[in-house]
Hints:
A: about 260 residues, mainly alpha
Amino acid sequence: MQRIFLALAVIVAIFLTLPLLIIVPMSFSTVKTFQFPPPGYGLQFYRNFFSDPTWLEPTANSVVIAVIMAVLTMALVVPASFAYVRQRFLGRGLINLLIMAPLIVPSVVSALGYYGAFGLVRLNGTVLGVALAHTALAIPVAFLVMTATLKGFDRNLERAAMISGATPLRTFFHVTMPVLAPGIATAALFAFLASFNEAVVALFIAGRNASTLPKKMFESIRLETDPVISVVSTILVAILVCFMLGSLLRRGNPRNAS
Amino acid sequence: MAVAAEAISSGQSAQYRRDRQKTFALLAPCVAFLLVLFVIPIGYVLLLSVTDPTVSLAQFERVFTTPIYLRVLWHTFFVAFVVTVLTLVLGYPLAYVTACRDDAWSKILLSLVALSFWTGLMVRTYSWMIILGKSGPVIGLIKAFGVAEPPQLLFTSFSSALGMTHIMLPYMVLALYSVMKKFEPNYLRAAESLGATPFTAFRAIFVPLSLPGVVNGSVLVFTICLGFYITPILLGGPRDIMLSQLIDQQVSEMLNWGFAAALSIVLLAATAVVLGIYNRLVGLDRLWG
Lengths: 258, 289
């Protein structure tokens, strides 16, 4: 029975992975269609990507937005998660619901809301507007990681530091923070990726000036059969694979996946 | 004595007050941010749905009395259900192997799930357009078998559901995995030492204990599928559309914001009902555990 399950699991894993690999040969195609397998191989579309501002600008926007929002998200989420895990207070359930709400509300609904509300304060089509919206959407993701990290934190470490004469501030920076650092880094990375992959809200509010990579990809798929999109996809998957191999080799344990 | 007790209690209440101030200071920025930058925009959609173009419930009436729109609603629920069942059937053995084996297979498979989880939805939707497209490998294969007129695969409900299944599969696997990981293998050994065959032990012990993961994964996948936007729009066909495609049409072709808002509120309400039932039976904070 173990063997049957393993065989089934491998087949499903192939179904999961093969579509990610099929874009690699596509990115080296020489024709401007979705023909697979491609009739010939070359670097033409890589050159196009790296010389075309209509692709490079969204790429830069995506990175800038994701960095701004990751910093902002962590600045908001770290204090909130401390209060949420360590204190008992009135309305705790309600606060939790509010923080988780962006994960519950379907993204089209949020997108429509941002489009309408940001239109009133002229945030549509700005990098700041997209970064603010993405921050709200990533708060629950970062909050989940942070609260899980904090629940696993042994407070006796802090008590030991205090008994040994450390001030609360010193305890925080020399004991609490170093222990929590990997959790905080994971939360920030999740926030970054949530923004970097987010398409729906960006589609509604980014406009021309703050267009992000997923938005540009959507438009490219819809309007033209531009194989540059497979170049972008290949690069993104390659970065992800390198990153995952790196963290796998470092920890020897892929459990940080979820 | 009394003075000492009072001193202690006033000391406690001062401590209590300090704690409350600290809690407030820590939570306030995050809560304020979400109130302004999330609750207000969602409220705006609600406002739009009952005021655009006039103050009335006409947009909602239109959703629930027009047969085409009711069909769209029904189809959305149907597709979400099908995708949920498919991800469960495909995800269960994969989660079982990753959670219950302790070898290289488990690590490799889990890494593949994680890779696919973090690969953007746009990349994965695009790759299905190549795979199922007119000049793609599947059609090529069908032609190679001598079928002169291969069926239309892309831009149908089939391709849309297939793409969504592929994208939602990692969510299901990870939800199942986090529950299965806690399973105590000794239970199976106990059952087998009492004479159960491996299959009976699996069916009578492992499967029931994995049900919380099944429920979590299904609720997660189902609710996300109800509001799935990008993939049905890019992979789906012109007939039998989902709610998201209808909203897209209303916004980008008809520029009918009031109706799009009303549809969004219906979508939000449907999601809230599913999660509300889940909250009653299980408790919402377990969903993302």
